[in-house]
Amino acid sequence: MKNLQARDIQIKQHFPDKISAIHGTGHLLAENGYTELDYIEEMIKRDQLTSTYIGNLVAIPHGTDDSQPLIKASGIVITQVPEGVDFDGNLVKVIIGIAGIGEEHLELLSTIAIVCSDLANVEAIVQAETPEAIIEIFKENGDDHE
Question: Which domain holds residue 118?
Fold first, then answer.
């Protein structure tokens, strides 16, 4: 995936619940310059409207349509939660926070869907020991094969 860097990935994280997990992931989006801090609340609102769990142990929290002004740059962050966290009765071990300007979020979602539709890729992300190993999984299996 283009521009995915080690600083965009948190490994071996632990959260008591999905709100904490969304906060942790959203904070990394803001810290890395993709969003304003207020975007985190929009991510929580979006998950309350419709669960951001997409299957295969993956959730993709992102903001509501009204949150576009809070996005500074398109990008994703990945939070690995090896022990998992409950998202509305679903076990989530990979949380991918998304910030997309305009239609750029569609490209981000496409790559995420390609990589995470294969449970073997998700399991490899969960077991990865370094951010670089996760980046390699996206490079090898994403749609741009950089």
Answer: 6-141
Distance, in Å, from the CA atom of 44 to the CA atom of 36, rounded to the nearest integer, reads 14
pTM exceeds 0.90 for this model: yes
**How big is the CA angle at 118 (ends 39 and 142), to the nearest 5 degrees?**
65
> What secondary structure letter does DSSP report for 7?
G
CATH code of the domain in which 95 resides = 3.40.930.10
Active-site residue list: 62
**21 is a domain residue:** yes
pLDDT in tens, 85-120: 999 999 999 999 999 888 887 888 888 999 999 999
Other residues' Cβ atoms within 10 Å of the Cβ of residue 117: 14
**Angle value at C-alpha 77, between 72 and 80, nearest 5 degrees:** 160
